[in-house]
Amino acid sequence: MQIIMKRLFLGLLLFVSIATNAIAADIHVITSGAFAEALKTLVPEYEKQSPNKVLISYGSSMGAAHDSIPTRLGRGEKFDVLILASPALDGFIKSGAVQPGTRVDLVASVMGAVVKAGAPKPDISTMAGLKQALLNAKTVAHSASASGIYLSTELFPKMAISEHMNKKASKIHSERVASVVARGDAELGFQQVSELLPIPGVEFIGELPPEAQKTVLFSAGITNNVSNLNASRDLIAFLASPKAAPTIQKAGLKPVLPVLPW
User: Fold this and answer.
1) Which of 43, 77, 193, 194 can bridge 72 by disulfide, Cβ–Cβ 3.0-4.6 Å?
2) For residue 123, what are the domain limits?
3) For 95-131, how does the pLDDT look when each residue is reduced to its tens digit (9 = 90+)?
4) How far apart are CA 111 and CA 34, in angstroms?
5) Within this chain, do residues 16 and 94 fall inside the same structural domain, yes or no?
6) How far apart are CA 36 and CA 193, in angstroms?
7) Is residue 190 a part of any domain in this protein?
8) In this structure, is residue 123 part of a structural domain?
9) Is 160 left (phi over 0), alpha (psi -120 to 50) or beta?
């Protein structure tokens, strides 16, 4: 009898273990715009191979907009995984909002420009061409996040056109720059290429020339109040895998394919 009871007990433990592992976890992810399109496409692929469900929110990496990632975390919104520009993620690691040792670099992102569909397309493949395009445009739009901060604080001063751009360049909050250009509110728009490509009504005119380009890493990290650590790690591992790389490339990003830290 004791042997039978012991076997029954062990069988029950095994059943509970299997049932627990099979329970789907909800993974709450917030991503900045650069990785948004890739993530929307990759999540259904992930959910086909996993019982977990991914719930996506969106916000800019930086800034004080009402829906930016810093603002949303500051008012107590809870997420399991953050995906944003790596300098901003490092800030959250230093503040304790993201667990140390969980940063995983997913993609490298470059900047480009768009004009309204049907409008003349200036040549921005050289520094001279880019400068002329900026000076000729009556209105210019750029993001209020990482790419826009780089333009306004580094590139425009480097090109000695800050005074001109201050008069006609607008920082765009809580909206894709290409959407502003598509409806005619700006002649020329700059943002991460992956944020420009999905928007209808505009034409992509190219990446910034190498001398003006700034490549930004976008990385994932797990928050300090994560609901399910293993599920969050599993999702990040999928996003960082070779299987996800073709979708990421199609979205206008360059996969990093890192070694995971766990």
Assistant:
1) 77
2) 111-207
3) 999 999 999 999 999 999 999 999 999 999 999 999 9
4) 10
5) yes
6) 12
7) yes
8) yes
9) left
Quote the number of domains for the chain.
2
pLDDT per position as a tens digit, 63-77: 999 999 999 999 999
| 7 lies in the same domain as 103 | yes
**What's the burial of 130, exposed, middle or buried (CB within 10 Å: 0-12/13-18/19+)?**
buried
Q: Please answer whether residues 121 and 205 qualify as being in contact, where contact means their C-beta atoms are separated by less than 8 angstroms.
A: yes
Do β-strands 216-222 and 81-85 pair in parallel, antiparallel, or remain unpaired?
A: antiparallel
Strands 188-192, 216-222: parallel, antiparallel or unpaired by DSSP? unpaired
State whether 91 and 185 are in the same domain: no
CATH number at residue 245: 3.40.190.10
**pTM, to two decimals:** 0.86
DSSP state string for 142-157: EESSHHHHHIIIIIHH
Q: Which of 21-30, 39-48, 217-226, 243-252 is the least confident region?
A: 21-30
Per residue in 185-220, pLDDT tens? 999 999 999 999 999 999 999 999 999 999 999 999
Domain match, 146 and 67 both:
no
Extended strands (E) in 2-69: 26-31, 53-58
HSE toward the beta carbon, residue 202, CA cutoff 13 A: 29
The residues facing 222 across adjacent strands are 81
222 located within any domain: yes
Cα 182 from Cα 146, distance rounded (Å): 22
User: N- to C-terminal Cα distance for the chain?
Assistant: 44
Judge if 17 and 93 occupy the same domain: yes
Question: For residue 40, is it within any domain?
Answer: yes
